[in-house]
Design brief:
Shape: globular
Strand content: over 45%
Radius of gyration: 19 Å
CATH topology: Lipocalin
CATH superfamily: Calycin beta-barrel core domain
Number of helices: 1
Order of helices and strands: HEEEEEEEEEE
Strand order of the largest sheet: 1-2-3-4-5-6-7-8-9-10
Largest sheet: 10 strands, antiparallel, barrel
Structural class: mainly beta
CATH class: Mainly Beta
């Protein structure tokens, strides 16, 4: 019985210690995302750009285009303090900006759920519940992992960006 209690106490202490290592999800704690980040291969080229705007909010834009044909996607994003926590809101558009993918008054919303010195996990809210986006920076590399649901089917998107000149 004493060993069982010791094991439970050790588990609680390890769990408590792990949670105290995470940095708070504040806008200032996410400034490591700032920069121009690019990825490309023979099929597509993409760029994700984050800048710090007034009030420490992060303003983002990204695109994924094909070098030899039409098509692709353009994205506008913001990460800001919503009063109840930090959240990313984003919208997608066609490559010509001719068509928005999300509703006019309903951007996709992802709440910052876990943060540390160079990583953040955003959890989908509302229609995006169950989806997650993770950004992790290591030097001049920014890794993005998106765990999305498309008509109930899980889809994983992984992109490794490299820092680019402005």
């Amino acid at each position: 019985m004493a060993r069982w209690r010791s094991a439970i106490l050790a588990t609680i202490l390890v769990a408590a210690g792990a949670s105290t290592n995470a940095a708070p999800c504040t806008l200032a704690a996410l400034h490591w995302m700032k920069g121009v980040w690019r990825n490309g291969d023979g099929q597509t080229r993409s760029e994700e750009r984050w800048t710090i705007g007034p009030g420490d909010r992060l303003m983002g834009s990204s695109w994924l285009l094909h070098p030899d044909r039409a098509g692709g996607v353009i994205e506008a994003s913001t990460i800001q303090d919503e009063g109840t926590g930090v959240a990313m809101k984003l919208r997608h558009f066609s490559a010509t900006l001719g068509q928005a993918r999300e509703e006019k008054n309903a951007p996709m919303v992802f709440a910052a759920a876990r943060c540390d010195a160079n990583a953040v996990v955003f959890d989908g809210q509302g229609p995006q519940a169950g989806e997650h986006m993770t950004y992790r920076r290591s030097g001049d590399t920014l890794d993005f992992v998106g765990d999305f649901l498309h008509q109930g089917t899980p889809i994983k998107v992984e992109v490794r960006f490299q820092r680019a000149d402005d």
